[in-house]
Amino acid sequence: MDITALNSTKALRKHVLVWMCLFFGSVSLFFSALNVFSGVYLLGFLELCFSIYCLYTIHHLSKHALRFWQSVVMCVLVCIIVLYANYISEPKYGLFVWSFALPVLCYLLMGKRYGIFFSGTVLFIQSLILLSKSSPDPIVNLNMAINLLLAYVSIWTVSHIFEGSRALSSKRLKNLALLDPLTGAGNRLSMNHYFEVELVDKTNTYLFLLDLDYFKQINDKFGHDVGDKVLTEIATLLRITLAKGYVFRVGGEEFAVIHSFNSKDEALFAAEKLRETVEKTPFNIEGHAIKLTISIGVADYQANSSLESIFIAADKQLYKAKRLGRNKVYASSKEQLKQIEVPA
């Protein structure tokens, strides 16, 4: 799976923003010329500026990723223009119908939290504008207000439910793609996604590659159900021991941890402490007291190095730890770390 496929929400909002810029920019340019010729210069000027902004946004998004502020600015500008147009025009011209498109636009571009705020704000301001428009027939005013309110709330409700359902489905699919179903740790795709997309500052980043020593013997002696629970317990222990690290299951009994440390000594100390913690922790599963040890290979990020190169470097050290007796920690500096003292 392509890493970019995991950012389906960003891709959706980028496409929506591009097409909205194309549509609203074209419509706004047309009405800008119409309003200038009609003598409504301020509204015409606002619509012209908005058209230019839409053109710039389309050009920018063709070369760069979507930023959230771009969605916010787009919604703010559209809301301002629609509300101002309603303020200076009479209801008989029907410009208020553009307000019905705003909840859909806001929810698609910004999600539920901002969508509900913008939709509620638009409803409040639009209501004040329409109530300020006097009519000789109060019954007509009341009927129109009720119908407009119900129509707007209906569209708002549908937008809210749809966006909530879409966001929840997207989150579930992302979890299925990124999480190991047995242990709840990240999988290889999750590790690639974290390193390539989420980890912006890779300075002082270290990768621990861990392997459970003689894990096959546990499966053979106690069964695969017990073995699966051992893997789950190990994943939990890793998350607790290295609270700020990111834990991934990269093989049957292999785990990787990506963590940032202030120095190499601090990273090596943490790896040795982790090895000792596992060694001293009894795993009580289905009445069995299971003792485990792990072997760890450590590698650090070098300038412009890829995750694959770091993984290979850590794997070489892990292989050395297993070949030279297991239950050891080796780092890419080729020095064995058994002599590091870990406080009790």
From TrEMBL:
Keywords: Membrane, Nucleotidyltransferase, Transferase, Transmembrane, Transmembrane helix. The keyword Membrane applies. Its EC number is 2.7.7.65. SMART domains: GGDEF. CDD domains: GGDEF. The keyword Mitochondrion does not apply. Residues 203-334 form the GGDEF domain. NCBIfam families: GGDEF. This is diguanylate cyclase. It comes from Pseudoalteromonas marina.
